[in-house]
Amino acid sequence: MGPAVDQFNEAVNGALASGHPFLVLNLEAMPIVDSSGIGAVVGALQLSKKAGGDTKLVNPSPFAIKTFRMVHILNLFSVFEDEAAAIAHCEA
Q: pTM to 2 decimals?
């Protein structure tokens, strides 16, 4: 919530503005997610797709997976166990 979501959105916008349409979000340090976090992650996906890319999730916690599944958004993302695998699936 609040500053954390704002920082996340700034990072996403900065990456996309720098010409990086593929986002790899390592969620390892995010043990829980609330509606603000869900909105930010979905927003990142929408922006990256609009830029011709995609958003990949890395290492989401069991709680995040359960929450994303419950709100029917997990199927929108490719989920990977490590960043290298996620990066390998990014097409320019």
A: 0.91
